[in-house]
Amino acid sequence: MGEPGAWGEITAGLKVSRPVLVARLLELDAAGALTTAHVRAGAQVGGVNVRTVWRWLEAARTEGRVERRPRARLELSDLAWGVLAQAGGNVAALHRHMKEAGGEVPSLASLHRVVRRDVEAGRVLPDRVVLRREREEQQTRQAVADLALVAGPREGGAAKTSTPPRLGPEATSGLSAGESGAVAGVALPAGAKLVRTSSVRAVAEAVGQAMATQGAVCVFGDPGRGKTAAVRMALGEVPPGWKVTWVPVPVRPSVAGMRRAVFDALGLPGRFPHTSALADAAVAGALAEARVLVVDEAQRLPARCLEYLQSLWDHPGTRITLVLCGAGSERALARLPQLASRVVAWQEVPRLAGAEVTSVVTGFHPLWRTVPAPELTWIDQSCAHGTLRTWAALTAHLQNALLTTADTSVDRALLRRLFKRVAPPL
């Protein structure tokens, strides 16, 4: 640093940047008047060592550079982020993995700095437990699918996807049970088909009305009633010029996490921006075209995340219809009255009415067509209680029981055993 004593008294309170200092010293050098006294004074007002000032001058003479040499920004690949997620966010484990892989490896401190920088910019690090659970669920679904291929070859394996409906009640009211096939994003037992119930038609009408006004709609109801399936069926075919984007709610959602979730769901090109302003500008640009933005499991969103979604909807350059879906989503919206006031349709998905149980479940899966209507009513009253998810689970268990046990008949004794598998003990 600069020397104390007289120099300190003369330069007290003076501070100057590197470009200004180097430019002045070069002028003195060109005039042949540069002395070591000038360099010492420059070091004092620049807050650096005298040798540093001489290096600055050398860089300016040989390279024409008066600023610090730019350093390459360290970026982590998606593969590295995947390793970090598997390690539960342990940066040291990622550092060991990179060393074992070979090649140039940054220091541990640099890795910590890069991870902290990207997380603060909105990069979401998946929870290790969630990743393991998702992997196990995927393996289970694949195993069930493989079993179904053996169980029902005459049914042609997986259900075929038929043409999805147009929005609006006039487009769905004439469809009979079982006329629709599978819908992307909805897990079904092998051979099952989605059925257009009265609730599905009501959701389609509500979403269609919201799209007509580019408003917001809230689809709510108890778990397992088919809210997500109803919304997916309603949006299976949208009017020309519209697009549909499903935004997954991240684990322990934050505003930064929701911003990243929307960015990824829109499939925007390039890496996620490192500032919220750039990310918001990119998202707003993509939402300038007519689009339905669906947020499932919206009940998990805190008020600040809902405010972020409202800001997207309120942005003057966006053209979106916001669909908030989930069990308890209406209570989540109650925490933000300014967004709740913008909802043009509140659509509850009720339990399956007793009068339509027989037509719905026989259209849902051919397995139930061999069961008499009174028995179907008994099953619904004893176990399913009008919950479509329970009917789906019961169908899968019944399929496996018929597959794995020879000469099995569908009677009340078998059904009572299966009831215990799909409902927790009271």
UniProtKB/TrEMBL annotation:
Pfam families: AAA_22. InterPro entries: AAA_22, ExeA_AAA_ATPase_DNA-bind, P-loop_NTPase. Residues 213-327 form the ORC1/DEAH AAA+ ATPase domain. Coiled coil: none annotated. Residues 153-176 are annotated as: Disordered. GO terms for molecular function: ATP hydrolysis activity. PANTHER family: GENERAL SECRETION PATHWAY PROTEIN A-RELATED, PHOSPHORIBULOKINASE _ URIDINE KINASE FAMILY. This is ORC1/DEAH AAA+ ATPase domain-containing protein. It comes from Streptomyces fuscichromogenes.
